[in-house]
Amino acid sequence: SGLKMRDWHLAASRVKAEQFKKLREERTAMILAKLLVLGYEEDDFPRWHYEVYKSEVLTDEGWERIRPTIVEAAESNKNNRILAEIRRRKMRRSGALTTLWNDVVVVASGTRVLNRAERGACPALDEFLDLDPVAALLEADTDGIPQEELDSIRPYALEFAIQGRRRYLVKLHNIWNGLPVDQVNEEEWSSLSDKRTIVKLDLIAAELVRAVN
Questions:
Q1: CA distance 24 to 45
Q2: Where are the alpha helices (H) located in 38-146, listed in sequence order?
C-alpha cells in the first residue's frame, strides 16, 4: 500500500543518512589525523571545508589530490589562531599597564583628582605606553606581565605622571602671574620628594582654582 511504501522510503532514507554520516565522520577523522602528523593543531583543522565534509571514503590517492587545498586551509587557520593569540596576550599586557597607569595618576593627582580644571594635567595613557621601558613590556611576547615587573616600573611611572602634572600646573601658574611660560626653579623642585612635590602641586592647583573663581 501507499503507507507501507512511504514507511519503506523513510526507513531507507534514515539508513542512507546514517551511512553518509559515518562516512563523513571517518573521512573527517582521517584528514584530522594526517594534519596532526604534519604538525598542525586540532584548532587549525578546516572541519567545514568542502573537501572534508564529504560522504566519501578517503583513499591514499584522494588524500594526495586534496592535500594541497587542505593544508592551505589549515595553514590559514593556524596563522589566524596565532595572530588572535598575539592580540589576546597584548591586550592582557596593555590592560595590566593601563591599570598601573590609572593607579599612578590617582596618586600623582593628590587631593585634586576630582578637579575638572586639571583634567589632562597628567600625561595621557598613550604617552606612558610609548616610554621605552613600558613599550618593551607591552611588546614582549608574554601572557600578561609578572607583578614584580609592574612593581619595578611603578616608581618610574609615578615620576613621569608627577612631572607631567608639574609642567602643566607651573605653566598655568606662570601665565596667570604674568611670568615666562617655561620659567621654573629646577633646584627647588629637585630637592622635593614625590610626596612633597604632590603636596606643593595641590597648593598651586588650589591657588589657581581660587584665582579663576
A1: 15
A2: 60-108, 125-129, 132-139
Q: Which of 172, 181, 179, 155 is nearest to 120 (CA)?
A: 172
- The three cell numbers locating residue 116: 575638572
The per-residue pLDDT for range 129-164, each reduced to its tens digit, is: 999 999 999 999 888 899 999 999 999 999 999 988
For Cα atoms 172, 196, 165, give the angle at the middle one, nearest 5 degrees.
30
User: DSSP of 153-167, one letter per residue?
Assistant: HHHHHHHHHHHHHHH
Beta carbons of 112 and 165 less than 8 angstroms apart? no
User: Please, are residues 58 and 32 in contact by the beta-carbon 8 Å criterion?
Assistant: no
Q: Which residues of 143-172 are buried (b: 16+ CB within 10 A; e: fewer)?
A: eebeeeebeebeeebbebbbebbbebbbbb
- State the Cα–Cα distance between residues 39 and 34, nearest whole angstrom: 9
- Between 40 and 178, where is the model more confident? 40
- 165-203, pLDDT tens digit by residue? 888 888 888 888 787 878 888 877 888 888 888 888 888
Average pLDDT over residues 17-33: 91
Cell of 49: 571545508
Nearest to 113 by CA among 99, 158, 105: 105
Which helix (H) or strand (E) segment holds residue 203: the answer is helix 194-212
